[in-house]
Amino acid sequence: MSEEVTPPPAIEVQNLVKTYAGVTAVNDLSFTVKRGEIIGFLGPNGAGKSTTMRILTGFLPATSGVVNLCGVPVATEPEAIKHLIGYMPENNPLPEDMRVSEYLHYRGRLKEVPRRKLSDRIEEVLELCDLKHVRHRIIGKLSKGFRQRVGIAEAVLAEPPVIIMDEPTIGLDPHQILIVRDLIASLRGRMTVLISSHILPEIEVTCDRVIIINQGRIVASGTPNELRREILGHSAYKLELAGEVSVLSAVLAQVEPTLVIASYSEPDATGFRTLHLTTECDDLIGEQLVRALSNDTRFRLRALAHEHPTLEDVFLAATRRTWDMVDTPSKSLN
Amino acid sequence: MLLVSFSTYIAAVLFLFIMGFIFTTMMDYYSTGGQETTPAVVFFQYFWVPVLFMVPLLTMKSIAEERRLGTLETLLTTPVSTVEVVLGKYFAAYFLYIALWACTGGFFYILHRFAHDARFMDIGPLAGGFVFVIISGLMFVAIGIFASALSRNQAVAGIISGTLLFILIVGSNYLPGVELLHNEAMKPVKAAVDYAQIFQHLSDFSHGVVDARQVLFYLSGAVLFLIFSIFSVEVKLLHS
After folding, report:
1. Helical H runs in B46-81?
2. Quick check: A299 and A267 in contact, CB under 8 A?
3. pTM flag (> 0.95)
4. By three-state DSSP, how is residue B159 classified?
5. Do A97 and B4 touch (CB under 8 A)?
6. Relative orientation angle of helices B123-150 and B82-103, to the nearest 10 degrees
7. Contact A141, A98 (CB under 8 A)
8. Which residues in chain B touch residue A57, judged by CB atoms under 8 angstroms apart?
9. In chain A, which residues have their Cβ closer than 8 Å to the Cβ of B78?
10. Any chain A CB within 8 A of the CB of B84?
């Protein structure tokens, strides 16, 4: 169609399958990533995240399926692909005996950055990753936060259009996570970034779009907000209330017909219970709810909050959904 | 990667120390009475001592360490192929090996400078010895690289290459004595074993006889082991 006019998408994966000795690690995965997007790749351990990333880099061959990076097929043109990617594997392996600047120089030469441009480029990435004061230190003696930043500096060194990072924030303290997050966010628009992570708030803040995979399949994809609506499908409210629960349903139905009690706790010493309400209504109905309950003398309302589902809830719901899907046919993947 | 790692320097110092020790002992021996052969011939007869520990020490890290740390993964996602990685590792280790041997040339220079005796400085066997080291090193280092490609544990890689080298150098020395080979049916095998006499090669080289068949033996051995190393790296990638 209009493929001559618009540049091909940064990452294009179609029906990707990878099996290891009878175990299916990636099962019919398809997705597309636009240029300049930051994509979060989520999934429980063993979901196939690392395998997918390794196939994208051309390091592992796929069993079947098509992978194109910037329109270049990975399977037939591995050499061209290697100029298009910056890859940081899981656990960020680095040579222990080299100094930071030596390592970047060595990697720069390997990635065929012209010698004239290389030292300027190293200065730039050292500045970008705030590594200037450790440039002469030996990598094996750096702390985890610095090592991680050395890995990111290395990935962006040759200015590839696609950056693939496998768990860039694993094992970092909250302060370091913040720095790495800002670093990744600073690449937005210039490079396409695919990151995998377990740390969900992390993904929510940095990524434009999230792909959740489980058992080698995509279970959900979209922006964090879309996912919330798609997976959870409703808004939730949390109440702290004293009074008879059995008559509450009638009151709730007057406020909003779809509003139901999802769960409630036993009353505490002062007689208050914590209740969770859900509704399929997308409008905010907190105000009506407060008015209805405080006008009713049978109830005493202490607190009401609109529950904001986190990506974590979405993730748990989405992965649980696939387990249900996978378990029902008697085909086990692990 | 070899020049930034600490173990290389330990290996280098150890090598020069042991070779110096052999040389000094030999000189001691010469000083007590006249000998029939020149120092160079005797010196190179001990070539197997450094080969058995130097080659494993220099090569065991090369691929095993990359694989253990996971840097092989980052290395292969840059625009280099498996073949280039293996050959790069091989030539790095080989040139270091040759450079260290070249240092022992200093021993003969010192001898020449202070002995003032032309008999000690017989250039023929000396050159022959170094040519032998340069050519045989091609195969020995390739064996080390191959062993390193087999395991992710560098100690295991070192032991494998040490054992292979020991079988090749010392073991082949005893093979012609095996009764089985004297059987008529085993004649081709016996011929092959007779070719693979590394001590015989050394003595030929020292006497100035450079046989193309012997050179070919080391060259083909080196190529074979390098091809095996490349296969071994690639196969492990497919099954990782």
Report:
1. 48-69, 71-76
2. no
3. no
4. helix
5. yes
6. 140
7. no
8. 77
9. 82, 107, 110-111
10. no
Contacts of A161 (CB under 8 A, 6+ apart): A10, A35, A70, A84, A191, A192
CB-CB neighbours of A203 under 10 Å: 26
Tens digit of each residue's pLDDT (9 = 90 or more) over B106-148: 888 888 888 776 666 677 788 888 888 899 899 999 999 999 9
A128-179 pLDDT tens trace: 888 888 989 999 898 888 888 899 889 888 888 899 988 888 777 788 788 8
Query: Residue B74: its chain A contacts at CB < 8 A?
Result: 87-89, 93, 107, 154
Kindly provide the ipTM of the predicted complex, given to two decimals. 0.77
Report how far residue A247's alpha carbon sits from residue A234's, in angstroms, rounded to the nearest whole number: 23
- Write out chain B residues lying below 8 Å of A94, CB-based: 69, 71
**Are the Cβ atoms of A154 and B74 closer than 8 angstroms?**
yes
Cα separation, B154 vs B67, whole angstroms = 10
For B:124-183, CB contacts with A below 8 A are none
Under 8 Å between Cβ of A12 and A29: no
pLDDT category at B157 given cuts 50, 70, 90 is very high
pLDDT category, B51, cuts 50, 70, 90?
A: confident
CA dist A104 and A125 (Å) reads: 9
Contact B69 A83 (CB under 8 A): no
Query: B83 at the A interface (CB within 8 A)?
Result: no
- Select from A85, A91, A94 the Cβ nearest to the Cβ of B77: A85
